[in-house]
Structures are given as C-alpha cells and as structure tokens.
Give the backbone structure.
Amino acid sequence: MTLPHAPERPVVTTLTVGRLTVHTLQTGIQKLDGGAMFGVVPKPLWERRIAADERNRIRMGMRVLLIEHDDGLVLVDCGLGNKEPAKFLDIYGIENAGANGRTALEDALSVLGHRPDDIRLMLNTHLHFDHAGGNTFIAPDDPGKRVQLTFPNAQYAVHGREYAFATQTNERTQASYLPNNFVPVAQAGKYRFLEGNGGEVVPGVEVIVTPGHVPWHMAVLIRSAGEALLFPADTIPTAHHLPLAWIMGYDVEPLRTLESKRALYARAVEEGWRVVFEHDYDTVGGRLVRAERGIGLADVDSMPAAPDANRVPPLDPGGAAR
Ligand SMILES: [Zn+2]
C-alpha cells in the first residue's frame, strides 16, 4: 500500500502542563472544502485568513496528543490511519504516509522512542475518520487485508452515545463514520464506553462533552499542578475558528457548537487554559485570553517556518511568550 507523503514539517512539539509532559504529534495533512469548514462565513472573509487551492480546499493538519502519564502513555485521537483507498485520499487531500506502509503517527511515536504497543489508553474525542481512523490498520504485506488493532495493549475509550451515533448513521452522517475504524475495537472488547457529561478518564485527564459537531463530541482537558491544556478537537478545529460564529458546516447541531464554545471560553479565560488545535496546520496552539471582540490567542505556538523533519523543538514550559 503506497500512501502520499507525510508532512515535511516537524511532526512533534513538546509542552509541559504542570508535572505532565504532553507531545503534539502531526499525523498528516488533509484538505477540506473551505466553505464547508467555515459554515455561514462568506468566502471573502475566510479567504483573508487561509488560502484555498484550485479545488476550493484548505490545508489542515491532523494533530493528536500524546500524554506521558503515570498510568502509561495516553493518546488522544489517532489521525486517519492507512486503510483508505487512493480515491478517498485524493478527495480529502490526505498526505499521511509513514515508514513501512504505516502512517506519520507511527513515525512520530518512534521519534519519541515509542511504538504503538506502548500506548495504554487510546482516547477518541469522536469517531469521524480523521480522528479515529488510526485505531486500526491493515498490514501492507497482508494479502487478506485483515483489519487489526493499532494499539494491542491499550484500552480504548469513547463516549458510549457517540459509539451508538456512529453505528446508527443516516444519509447526512454516514460518510464520516467508517465502521472499520471502531467496530473491530468494540468486537475485541477493548472499548471503555464513557457516560454522562464528562469527568476524569485517568487522573488529570478529563473529558468534557461539547455537543454540536456531533451530539456526544468530547473535548479533553489536561490538568496538573495548577496548569491546564484544552484539546477542543472539532469544537474549535483551527485558530481561525476561535470567533464564536465561525462554526463548521459539517457540524450536525451548529447552535449547540456555539454554546459549547461559549462555555469553554468562560472557563478558559477564568482559569488561564492553553489550547492545542487538532486541525490547524500552522498554529499548534496558545493561551486563550479575553480580547476586544470575544476570544483571543496569546503566547502562540506556531510551527517553525523552516521544514526540518523529525526535529523536536522545545516549547517554553508554562507558555512564556514565543
Ligand atoms: Zn475532524
């Protein structure tokens, strides 16, 4: 299986959250329709912030988190994986190839000296293919193309209601939910189905149900020693989606996304949270601050301009200005 090439920029950045070390891993590029990404925002407005290609697509990342936790390595989302055919990769502009027919996620783990076998908890914010595709893989030399679990020693976790939503699709939702990404996990008895509106999954790693993109979408909040890092996943996919009304057309309940964002911002500003964006190719994240018009980003963590694959640039612990 040959996949288009993975991103040429550094794939790993490292942050500290209190006593925890958290790595952001860039698992690849995807290109989605700019109009769909910005919902009701007219193109003349969004185009000033991010350029569209000749197919009206904007370039995005598929950034995930790796948390070095006392209970073992925790991965939050896992990119697209390696199971999709060439036509799919072309439509969505996927570039995520890694070594040996696997993906940039496995490469990024190896930069840090880890293998998929080392992951102890695989947490899915939701089950769309660009977040949960990496749950499973097909070995490139397997003639039978068996779908296997990427993290054989991990417990996987997702909201139980999201699993139900993903397995009972309709004409509007089915294109995003590919059963091979999550049904084999459930069949292997590896899923811990989370309930309610959130709570700690392991000490210091909390999920917050943020409805809107899908009804049981979860954001992840990492807390240690008075510091906090928010991974809002598709509730705020890029830095361009910080304004309250900049909501994806993909969202099934956009007015609930609006309220999910409002609630996150109130807490974030109050408690000084940092943020990491899953889909922003250029901006890793920063600190959420009150701005003249709503919310702003300070102490921005950008990707270095010069491509330098597999470098691990140190970020200032605690988010001092960069
Ligand atoms: Zn997404």
User: Anything to note?
Assistant: The chain has one domain: 12-319.
